[in-house]
Design brief:
This protein is an alpha/beta fold. The protein has 2 domains: about 170 residues, Rossmann fold, CATH 3.40.50.300; about 40 residues, no CATH class. About 30% of the residues lie in helices and about 25% in strands. The strands form 3 sheets. It has a 6-stranded mixed sheet, sandwiched between helices. Strands 2-1-4-5 form a 4-stranded antiparallel sheet. The chain is globular and about 65 Å long. It starts with 15 loop residues before the first strand and ends with a helix. The structure holds adenosine-5'-diphosphate and magnesium ion. The site of adenosine-5'-diphosphate (ADP) has 12 residues, from strand 1, strand 2 and helix 1.
């Protein structure tokens, strides 16, 4: 097994640091362990993809980085500050100034009756402590994500991919150092998804912003600089092998393969040297 030090960023250049992070949700008398001891280092300017099956704890990791939630145990540090030690007001300021969010569906990202230009200008307009020096020019941001010709459109006039690119521009408006994206391409066809990934890459290059993107999408995961897998509330280190056959005789596919196959019933064809899996909908069998 390769030692984690070989691919973790070195100490000097860590922006986000998880140390033995646990998150337990209480439901009635029982606890649900969403994270069971996560250690994770993310370098400034990194574009990281977080992959793993549903319920693995991916969104929980984003919520902790974004200060939307607090760890039950362990520490989440950003720039050397332990988020667990910040008071409510300091955490709110941290979220407003350091973090940009891009969610899966547009409804949560954009105000429907404002133009995309107004949407990008909104975070500064409602921030009482706004410092014009910290604000980015809305039109420039929209040009960077390929929406220079759509400034006066409202979200309803845009395609799904354009809406998500507008959401990226909104997320960048307040010069955050970290952008968190939860399944940002999940509702898009692959062509639109590619334009959204290009937009993430463009803002990453232009501003050096750190991007943490949860995704089920194989192409999206490939677009990032690095991928980590989360399973059962733990981070599996990159390069760690997955035992193909469990003691129970079940075959475990890598997460990428599961993502590529998608939901629904599969059909297996066993030959002498391989097993082919196909979606039943593609084989034409009932
Ligand atoms: P993922 O994003 O990988 O699908 P989540 O981080 O949303 O997974 O959830 C991890 C686990 O924690 C799941 O078992 C989920 O049901 C549970 N969980 C998440 N949020 C809550 C909550 N607010 N209350 C109770 N359980 C939760
Ligand atoms: Mg999730």
């Amino acid at each position: 097994m390769v030692s984690p030090e070989l691919f973790a960023p070195s100490d000097r250049e860590i922006l986000i640091r998880f140390r033995h992070v646990y998150k337990v949700y209480r439901i009635a008398e029982t606890g649900v362990v969403a994270l069971g001891g996560v250690d994770l280092d993310i370098a400034p300017g990194e574009f990281l993809a977080v992959v793993g099956p549903s319920g693995a704890g991916k969104s929980t990791i984003l919520n902790l980085i974004g200060g939307l939630d607090r760890a039950s145990a362990g520490s989440v540090e950003v720039d050397g500050h332990d988020l667990g030690l910040l008071g409510v007001d300091a955490l709110t300021r941290y979220r407003a100034h350091r973090i940009g969010f891009v969610w899966q569906g547009t409804a949560r990202n954009l105000v429907p009756y404002l133009t995309v230009r107004e949407n990008v200008s909104l975070p500064a307009a409602i921030d009482r402590h706004d410092d014009p020096g910290r604000r980015r020019d809305a039109d420039e941001l929209l040009r960077l994500v390929g929406l220079g010709e759509r400034l006066r459109h409202t979200p309803g006039m845009l395609s799904g991919g354009e809406q998500q690119r507008a959401a990226i521009a909104v997320a960048l408006a307040n010069t955050p150092s970290i952008v968190l994206a939860d399944e940002p391409t999940a509702e898009l066809d692959s062509e639109s998804a590619a334009t959204v990934l290009d937009a993430f890459r463009a803002v990453n290059r232009e501003f050096g912003v750190t991007i943490v993107m949860v995704t089920h999408d194989l192409a999206a995961a490939r677009a990032a600089d690095r991928r980590i897998r989360v399973r059962d509330g733990r981070v599996l280190h990159e390069g760690a092998s997955v035992e193909p056959m469990g003691d129970d005789g079940r075959v475990r596919l890598p997460d990428e393969a599961v993502a590529a196959l998608g939901d629904g019933e599969l059909e297996a064809e066993v030959t002498a040297d391989e097993v082919r899996l196909r979606r039943r909908s593609e084989t034409g069998h009932a």
